[in-house]
Amino acid sequence: MKTRTLKAFSLVVSQGSLLSAARALELSEPAVSRLMRELEADCGLQLFDRSNRQLVLTDEGVKFHREVQRVLEGIEQLPALASDIKQGQEEFLSVVAMPRAASGIVAPAVAEFTRANPRVHVKIDIRSRSEGDVWFGSALYDIGIGSLPIFHPKIISTEHARVPVMCMVPTGHRLSRLNRALSPADIAYESMITQGRATLNREQMEAWFRSADCQLCHTIEVDSPELLGSLVAEGAGVSLVDSISLAGLASERYTLIPIENPYLIAYGTLWFCPPEKRKHKATLLSELFEKHTLKWLREDHEHA
Predict the structure, then answer these.
(1) Is the peptide bond before 149 cis (omega within 30 degrees of 0)?
(2) Can you list the residues of the chain whose pLDDT is less than 70?
């Protein structure tokens, strides 16, 4: 796949038509149309739905476009990377993180890392599990951090800690006055805020309710741990969360209550290459991921 073809694809999507993209590229419309057909053949995907004589992205096309944008952004960064190398920049680390680990683990770990290694260039992508078919096993990343388990032949995971799930309620909620661990029956009839179906978080939550012969009811479904926490803090409902996923949210806006037989969320480093090929600086960053994950676990025990 040529960079020129990827840029043409990006322009077709952003401009909304072959003609507009052709003008921007100073090509003919048939030439751009031919590039799009060649791109579909090269990647083995149907990127556009042409049934109504309009180029509308298919679901595959939407996912592919998202990745093309990342690739093109990376290409645009190459001159700056070359400048860093010329100026003696020691190393380049490419990091991928799941959203729930971004503020609580990645932010403090990378901040500490860069203070000790100011000449290392760090690039961080935030990617959800739902995008895993694209980035799992990707050679684009040196190291990752997120919730486990992940089953992929090209990923080696190193677990750092398992953080207990608790019930998150808005400050002043009636459940916070029970002064005991909550059972599934205590929560079953509350307005629940959950992550989407087929997510690890949702599957674990449903299993916890089933263990007590309770049915999980929910009124709001989101695909973002950050939004989930904010909705609870705003009084939209309650949820089951781990403390790491709430980093950055003002603690006076919510209360975390222990639950009976709590299930655990495992966090760990994701490796995309065998040990002998790992960058030394990536290993140092992994140690900081572990340090800051364990810090959350200690704080949870202190507040329990």
Answers:
(1) yes
(2) 74, 77-78, 80-90, 131-139, 301-304
